[in-house]
Design brief:
With about 150 residues, this protein is mostly beta strands. The protein is built from no helices and 11 strands. It has strands at about 1-5, 10-20, 30-40, 55-60, 70-75, 85, 95-100, 105-110, 115-125, 130-135, 140-145. It has an 8-stranded antiparallel β-sheet, with no helix packed on it. The protein has a 3-stranded antiparallel β-sheet with strand order 1-2-3, with no helix packed on it.
């Protein structure tokens, strides 16, 4: 990893994740090896009354990599950093919890096709004016995006 401050990140570099087969694991028992680029940045809690991201109307997208549906909710980030569905554009159930002090977020969103909930977690990247994370199901993990 290289620690360097620029407009996009504060650290980046090649990342290799190797997981052996784990037959007793609750989620994803097979082995895998992932080679990717990792990016990170410092999170600075906003002053009281300021938003964590520079956005009001945003989207929350869960990309199902097993050829399942892409779930996209149009959401509103309030001045008090509360995230809710935009009632005119998204009607499937959403809960979204944002911890302003750490930049962590989590929640559940219902699959609009079958109503089943997907739990997600992530972290805000202020330099990218967005949040990135993941959700899990029994056979995969997949990315989550929150932002403009």
């Amino acid at each position: 990893m290289t620690f360097i401050t620029n407009d996009v990140s504060d650290l980046s570099g090649d990342f290799n994740w190797i997981k052996p087969t784990q037959p007793k694991a609750k989620i994803y028992t097979p082995a895998f090896q992932i080679e990717t680029t990792a990016v990170g940045s410092q999170y600075v809690p906003p002053v009281q009354g300021a938003q964590v991201l520079n956005v009001t109307n945003a989207i929350l997208t869960l990309v199902n990599s097993n050829a399942g549906p892409v779930i996209t909710n149009h959401v509103i980030l309030s001045a008090k950093n509360k995230v809710t569905n935009d009632p005119t554009l998204s009607t499937n159930k959403l809960t979204f919890s944002l911890t302003v002090s750490s930049g962590l977020f989590s929640g559940k969103v219902a699959d609009p096709q079958n109503g089943l909930p997907y739990q997600f977690k992530g972290v805000l990247f202020q330099k990218q004016n967005a949040g990135f994370g993941y959700f899990l199901n029994p056979t995969q993990s997949a990315p989550v995006y929150f932002g403009p």
